[in-house]
Structure formats: C-alpha cells, structure tokens
Design a protein that fits this description.
4-stranded antiparallel beta sheet, alpha/beta, binds pyridoxal-5'-phosphate, 14 helices
C-alpha cells in the first residue's frame, strides 16, 4: 500500500519507556521512572477519591460541553468559557493549532531544540520548519528569522519554560516579542511547566488573561499531565481569543476527553496541598541534582521545570542511559534531539538518591 508522501518526512515521537515493560524485560523488582516529567508524588489524594466515585460511570459518554471543568478553569484564569478549549492532553490542542493554520505552502518557527510534537504535527501538514541556530529561545534570532520569512511563517512556538532544555524566558520578553508579530501569525505559548517556573521566579509567570487581551493571535497552552499529576488520563487546555477557539472547535471530535479525565482534572484543581507539596519537593530536590552535577564535574542547564538536563563532553548519553536502564532507572536520552545529553525528571527523595547512587557508579566505570 502507498501512503501519503508526507509520511516519508515524519519521524515518530520517542516516548519515555514504561515501568512495567522495563521490569519485565530486564527482570527487575524495582523500576524508577525519571523520564517523562510526571509528578513523582503520584496521583493527588482528591483525584484518587474522585476516580473511585466515578469508576462505575465508565459506560457513559462524558459531558461534551465540559462545563464543570470549564467553569473551574475560567474562574482560575479570569477568562470566559468561550476563550477555552479542552483537549486530550495539551498535545491535542497543539494539533488543533497546527491544523488550523499550517499547510504545504507556509511555515512555522521554533527554537533549535524544543518539544518534538510541534515539528511532528506541523510536518503532517507539509509546512516548512524554521529553527533558530541557538538551541534555546534567543528572541533576537527569532525576530530576525521571522522578519526574513514573514509571509511564510504562520505559527511561532515558544515553550516557556522549554522542554527538554529547562531554560525559561521572562514574561516581559515574551510580550515584547509578540508585539513584532503580525496578527495573522499565531504565537503558541506552551506553558506546560510554567507553574514550576513561576514558583521559582515570579518574572517567568505568564498570565493568559493578559496575553489574550493584549494579543488576538496568542494561544496559551496548559496541561494537567505535569504538576497536577494526570499524565495517564490525557487532559490539557488552550486559552485564546474566541475566534481562535471557534476555529479549533471545528477540528475537535466530540467526546475528545474522557469522563474520568474531566472529573479528575476538577479534583486536581481543588487539591491545593498536593500542588504545593509537589512544587516544594521539586525545587528542594533539584538542588541535590545541581550539587551532584558539580561534584561529578558534569554540565547542567539551570532549570525552571520539573526536570534537569545534563550535557556531556566525553561520555556518551546513549551508553549512560542504557547502563542506568539495566539498573532499573529510566531517564530520557536526548540523542533523538541531536544532543549528547540526558533529561532527568526530579523524583521523590528516595528515587533521586537511587539515581545518584547508580549514576555515580556508572560514571566511574
Ligand atoms: C508534557 C508536555 C506537553 C503536553 O503534554 P500532554 O500530556 O499532552 O498535556 C506539552 N508541551 C510540553 C513542552 C510538554 O513537555
């Protein structure tokens, strides 16, 4: 069978490996996963309760208006329901954005190394990719590239803070930059980790209400997969002006988010204690990673997220990650991003100490 030719240019997203699969493959009793930036504190107690309550509702389609969660999110952000769309992960909202703007005759712009799904979705539409030579977000270079290809570029992706590098623009810089972008070019601000960045440094805090009021072309993306601990349920959201949301609704399949995901997201927003603990654990434990890197003479990128990226000179990131895997610790090798580096999700104190133990042994050997 022949497939759409566009498929020849596509590569698959390489996801973090699964705990059960690795335990079976390597015959291990304990596997620690520090690979997908999930919440190491697990599922919030209020979410567990809610999932139990709704366990016997799995036969029902969800409320397609999603009004309960929309009301909660609108209140949280001070926006209108019409400025909000909920997706099966914010990934799905990225897909809506791309399909609403890109085609084989136009292009998108992103930094050198960022979330792989932007490029994957955009290439499905045949759009051309412009990347900055700088790996992270150098807005001077963004401006230069945008101005050189203004007629072509219809989406600009800003990942604030950036996955998989962990660096983060200031809110002020983001706003200054958007001013130079034409109204017809969508600026997607992926804020998957912005709660972490805001906790560490207020200057990184993005306020979607302000952004969409000032700019009709901004799409702000949030997710329940990271801080809120719902990665397994697939739920995220997009905030933008009504016209953008209306366009996205044309691309959305009915019942795109499950009933359990919707109920769990409502509960996750209520569990403020869990959120607070998660943020505190993250940055307390992050310090240990920075100290570890310094002690081992490894380079790391200062991080505003729930992960930290180590880069290597002589050592090989693939070899290191494979050795660690055999010891039952899954981290993310960044070779597929063209980097000799690894990304490690900040875990619980126990998980992190296990990582330090095994990784220091491997580095010696
Ligand atoms: C995890 C992540 C997302 C979205 O994840 P979903 O699980 O699809 O909500 C989006 N952008 C970045 C940068 C991420 O790391």
């Amino acid at each position: 069978m022949k497939f759409n030719e566009i498929l020849n240019q596509l590569s698959n997203y390489e996801p973090g490996k699964d705990i059960e699969v690795i335990a079976k493959e390597y015959n291990l009793k304990e596997v620690i996963k520090l690979a997908s930036n999930e919440n190491p504190l697990g599922t919030a107690p209020k979410v567990v309760q809610t999932l139990q309550t709704y366990a016997n509702k799995a036969h029902l389609y969800p409320d397609d208006s999603m009004s309960e969660l929309k009301t909660k999110l609108s209140a949280k952000f001070g926006i209108k329901d019409k400025e909000l769309i909920i997706g099966a992960g914010s990934d799905q909202v990225i897909e809506f954005a791309v399909h609403s703007k890109l085609n084989a005759n136009n292009a998108f712009l992103q930094c050198g190394v960022t979330f792989a799904m932007y490029e994957i979705y955009a290439k499905q539409c045949g759009a051309k990719c412009y990347k900055t030579t700088n790996l992270g977000h150098d807005l001077k270079e963004f401006k230069k590239l945008y101005e050189a290809h203004k007629d072509e570029i219809k989406i600009i992706f800003l990942c604030v803070p950036n996955n998989p590098l962990g660096e983060c623009l200031n809110a002020k810089e983001v706003k200054e930059f958007i001013k130079i972008v034409d109204e017809d070019c969508m600026v997607v601000i992926d804020a998957a980790y912005n709660e972490f960045a805001s906790f560490k440094d207020k200057q990184k805090h993005l306020e979607p209400k302000e952004l969409i009021k000032e700019f009709s072309n901004v799409l702000y993306l949030g997710t329940f997969s990271k801080l809120y601990g719902l990665g397994g349920l697939r739920i995220g959201y997009g905030i933008a002006n009504e016209a953008i949301i209306k366009a996205f609704y044309k691309l959305r399949a009915p019942f795109n988010v499950s009933i359990l995901a919707l109920k769990a997201a409502c509960a996750a927003l209520e569990d403020k204690e869990f959120v607070k603990q998660s943020l505190e654990n993250n940055f307390k434990e992050m310090i240990k990673y920075e100290e570890f890197a310094q002690n081992q003479a490894l380079n790391f990128i200062p991080s505003y997220t729930n992960f930290i990226t180590f880069t290597f000179n002589e050592k090989n990131s693939t070899e290191l990650s494979e050795k660690l895997l055999k010891k039952g610790i899954i981290i993310r090798n960044l070779k597929s991003y063209g980097l000799n580096a690894v990304r490690i999700t900040i875990g619980t104190p126990y998980e992190n100490s296990r990582f330090f133990e095994e990784f220091s042994q491997i580095l010696k050997g």
